[in-house]
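Record type: monomer structure entry
Structure origin: computed from sequence
Chain ID: A
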Amino acid sequence: MSDQQTLIFAHRGIPIRFPENSLAGFQYTIDQGADGIEFDVHLTKDRIPIIMHDEKIDRTTDGSGFIKDYQWSELKKFKLADGQSVPSLAEFLQVVENKPIRLNLEFKTDLFHYEGIEKIVMAMVKRTELAYPIIYSSFYLNSLRNCYQIDPDGQYCFLTAKYLHNAEHFMRINHLAGLHLKHYQKIPHTIERIWTVDDPAKQRKLFKKKVAALFTNDFQSANERRLAFK
């Protein structure tokens, strides 16, 4: 438990108001003072990092097929639900540069490991002026190991829905700064960020326990509940 209040990360922006992982949604979270943004990154066929959760574009755009099979010039022609284009990481970084918001970039590499994605992404981030050190996360541990080889001083967090036994040892040998968990485990001396928490009662429990952070699809409602625990 920490003496500091729980941080609230806007999960893929604010999907209850804007299409998930959209520039308009990200801009709204910044304008409304969210603590942080969580977003997901893939690589196109021509190795351009783009922001989308799924490996396929079917659910969130008017197109179909795998991201990895499209050139960026082709992919950006497809539209999200409100007519916006799929954002590239470069476009996103322009929006968040020098803004007072924390970032959690998830490498979506657990189904397809895009070779070299970590090096490409981290080089782009390094060239961007950010208010806080970026958090890199993934369900795919090898991506985080690759990140550590590139920059041993970065913040790398493992995503899992499973209960972790001997978590402190696991974190130490994998050079992890924290764990992003489906359920709070109360691991000693460990940063735990919990996903994806939209249930008001569960949010209140986590605020009371002062967990490091939670991810939610409606950061504004979560923030109103958090006020009771200040």
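Annotation 1: The two ends are 15 Å apart (CA to CA).
Annotation 2: The longest helix spans residues 117-126.
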